[in-house]
Amino acid sequence: MPARQSLADIEFLLTEVLQAPARWQALAPFADTDGDLAAQVLDEAAKFVDSAIAPLQRSGDEEGCRFDAGQVHTPAGFREAYQAFWQAGWPSLSCDPDDGGQGLPAVLECVLFEWLAGANHGWTMAPGLLHGAYECIQHHASDNLKAQYLPQIASGEWLATMCLTEAHAGSDLGLVRTRGVPQADGSVRVNGSKIFISGGEHDLTDNIVHLVLARLPDAPAGPKGLSLFLVPKVLEGGARNAVVCERIEEKMGLHGSPTCVMRFDDATGWLVGEPNKGLNAMFVMMNAARLHVGLQGIGLLEAAWQKASAYAAERRQMRAPGARDTSLIQDHPAIRRILATQRAWIDGGRVLAYHTALQLDAAQHSTDAAERAAAQRWCALVTPVLKAALTDQAFHGASACLQVFGGHGYVREWGIEQIVRDARVAMIYEGTNEIQAIDLLVRKVLADGGEGLAALLEALPATPAARARHTVLVDITHQLARAAQADPELPYWVADDYLRAVALVLLEWAWGRIETASRAERWSSPAQAFARWVLPEFDMRAGILRERIAQARNTKAESAAAV
Question: What's the pLDDT at 368?
Fold first, then answer.
């Protein structure tokens, strides 16, 4: 995906639609960051992505990673590209200057990683967890650990992993068996195995910092007994730690990223945060990762759209309606609908993701307590929506873009099939999309009876038609809260439908912002596609939710009558 091809669109969304320069200049750490500086950063980022990362996309997929006696060799060019990446300062864009970072707004880092994912998803898996690891260590590690590891994580000189999953546990972290035994010197000895560890072993950096969920000896059962430990590949002084990569997985996609089975054999580590509160520390990392996975969805869909759009502009096939001769396939209504619909998701998704990044900075740096609270509410409610809705659309939308190529899309030559393969995993990792939906509805929306969501929607400018949809969603939410008291399973049955409904009203707000800023043809075509082909799904989801609520009520009434 040529990053520079989307640069003008992104600058328009940031400056004209979201008024980002004014918003971040209102926050003390970014008072000197104006639109010109941001444009310069993004221009250089686009050049780097296009010249250093994108050319390795196909070769990295075809060569893949090689496993040899515990060592992992990444595809040709990957190490050199990564060394250039961190030495140019790209991982440290939004890190604190006190840690060696550049102190820039989070949204600039978000744009960079969106581009990286679209250009070369496999390579981008390596630095993808850096920011989350940085936040986790910065907020929860001891001063000694920060001094020893934070500068190298902030700069990207060392990469990091998130070691959660075990073969028997999957998403149920309460079943984790890995153990950490305290030592007299304040360290711990970590024993256990982890699977699906992206970048658990590689040759990109000289050290890898593993953040490992495990249990202390007397920890309570379940997730409340988990602690977090920092376990480096290489110890201070240069000795290799007892961390072993047993194998790498053969996968559907992401061949350029090693997905490792890791074993810890009395490995030396240190506690991060408080004992038995590892999930609190780890969720800082996971929440950062979930926003970035949503951005991966945008980047991958943009890459697929660019390929399909370029192909449609040069391929002739049959006569389009009203034409006298063979036509470019971009003139056929079916193809125009595919391309405009995916464009609607990309543009609207960008507004939501970038607005969320701006809210992250507001939540951390605003001096207004009410603004901080509103920003925190937005991030808590919208992050699972972005992760689930945008990765779902990345896969299904990329598949639709493959359809534009016909049979040519199914063969490797055109590169679209790789995007479809690579995109599929984003619906699974960092919490499956089903878990995101449950997190949204059960843990966040229903936890306060829907009041937080209602307040979020009330604060959004809306047309009368959009406000009517907000009213419908809030009413359904209150009905779900009441019905769930009698049928606790109900929210779990309908969580996916609920998340889609929320995503659609948020996208409607995003498109309202775009249309307010510009009525140019570039934006009007996808705006029409959103109204015609995307937004009507809201009525379908609302109908499903109402029907399921009615069924739950009827079941309750029948049970009461039987008694």
Answer: 95
